[in-house]
Amino acid sequence: MKSLKLILSSPRYLAPALVFASLNIWFGTWAIYIPSVKEKLAIDKADLGIAIFFLSLGVFAIFPLASTIINRLGVGRATWLGVVLASVFALFPLLASNYYVLCLALFLFGTTNGLLDIAMNTLVTEIEKEDKQNFMSAAHGFFSLGGIIVGLGSFLIPFLGNPALHMGITVVLVLATNWLYKKEYYHIKAAPVVKEPFSLKLFKPLFLLGAIGFIAMGSEGAVVDWSALYLKEVTFSPEILIGGGFLAFSATMTLGRFLGDGISQRIGSVKIVALGALIAIVGYGLVLAGHTASALIGFGFIGLGFSVMVPELFRIGGTVKGVDSSQGVAFIAGMGYTGFLSGPVILGLLAEKYQLTTSFWTLLGCAFVILLLTAILKGKGR
Q1: Contact (Cβ atoms closer than 8 angstroms) between residue 224 and residue 337
Q2: Which pLDDT tens digit goes with each residue over 240-275?
Q3: What integer pLDDT is reported at residue 230 of this predicted model?
Q4: Within 10 Å of residue 149's Cβ, how many Cβ atoms?
Q5: Is 147 left (phi over 0), alpha (psi -120 to 50) or beta?
Q6: Per the domain annotation, does 76 fall within a domain?
Q7: How far, in Å, CA of 119 to CA of 71, rounded?
Q8: Does residue 193 belong to any structural domain of this protein?
Q9: Cα(126)–Cα(79) distance, integer angstroms
C-alpha cells in the first residue's frame, strides 16, 4: 500500500493515476453497452467480433507513430492530447447508426486509446526514474478503479435507458477532473538515453514479456468485452447483475495492483506472474461452472490473478538498456493490445461457431501457457 499512499499524498503522482482511471472509465462504459449495441444494430456475435477488431486496427495504426508523437510533443503534452481525443471519440461507438459507422467509430476510438495508453505508461516510467519512486502497479490500480466506477454505474442502466447520455455525462465529468490536474505533468519530457543498435540480446526479453502481455491483456479484454454477455446468455443472470462480472473483476484487480509493488519487491517479478496465473486458472474454473454466483466469484479471481502482470511488464519494458522508454513501452503495449483487442475477436468467432463457453475454455488454456513462459523467463534469470 506504500505506492497508494504515495499517490494520494501528492498531486504529482495522483495526476497520472487519474489518467489511468479515466481510460478504463471511457472504455468500460462502452463495454457494458456492448449487448445493447448488438441488439440495436441487429448483429450477431461474429459481426460484433469483427467490429471490435476495428478497435484493434485503430490501436495498431497509432502504435508506429506513438513514440514519435510522444518524443516531439513531450510525454506530458502527449498524455493530455490523448485525454482530450479519447474523451471525444468515446462517444462515437454509442452513437453509431449502422454497422459500418460502428466499425469506423471503433477504429477512431482505438487510435486515441492506443496513443493515451503508451503516453501515460511512459509518463509514469519517467516520473519513477526521475523521483526514484515505484508506483506503476498502483497507477494501474487506478485503471482498475475506473472499472469499479463503471461497474457501479452499470446499475444505472435500467434507469438511464440511453447509452449515449450515459457516456456523455461520463465524458464531461472525467475530462473536467483531468483538466484540473494536467498542470502536474503537462511539462514533463522523457529523459534522453544512449541508444544501442538492434540486437537479439535486446529483443529476446522484450519478446517474452510481450508474449505474456498478449495473453494477460487478452484475458482482460475477454472479461471486459464478453463477461456481460456470458452472464446474460450462459448463466441467465438478471439484468441488474449483468455488469457484476466486470465489477468483480475490476475490484479484485484494483486490490491486487495496490498491493503489487510491495509483493513484487519481496518475491520477484517472475514468481508473482506465475502466482497470478495459478489464481486466474482457479477463476476460470469457477466461471466455467456455469452458475451466476460462481461466475461472479470466478471473474474476481481472474482479476486478482492478472492484476500485477501488466504493470510489471510496462515497468521492465520502459527501463531496457539502450531503448527509449517510449519505444520499450510501445513494444510491450503493442503485444499486449494485440491480445486485448484482437483476442475478443477470436473469442467472438469461436462463440459464434461453437458456444461462448468454448471461448472461456480457450482462455483457461492460455493461463497455463503463461506458467510455461514464466518458467522460460526464470531460466533466463529475469
Answers
A1: no
A2: 888 888 888 878 888 888 888 778 778 877 788 889
A3: 84
A4: 21
A5: alpha
A6: yes
A7: 10
A8: no
A9: 13
